[in-house]
Amino acid sequence: MTDKKHTPISDAEEARIQKLIASDPDAPEITDAQMAEARPFTEAFPALAEKMRKNVGGRPRSANPKVPVSIRLDQEVVAKLKATGPGWQSRVNEMLRREVLTDR
How many C-alpha atoms does 75 have within 13 Å on its Cβ side? Predict the structure, then answer.
């Protein structure tokens, strides 16, 4: 296959790849007959597909969901916050919560 993202391989490389495919008994190349019988996952396993569709979205909904915002901050401030590691955005939220929601 030739396009902007792929460089064609040599005949020798293709032969090497085909030899490796043929040598793996656990992963035989699919035949045309098998390909003709193939069905979409949702058709072959409808119950499982429906269960997976319902579970999309990851974690449960929060009782107090966050609101995405866009804010301009100094580069060195963001760098320092990110340097604290994963969860830095949650820590920023806690800092702002303490500052903004504290009665003075």
Answer: 0
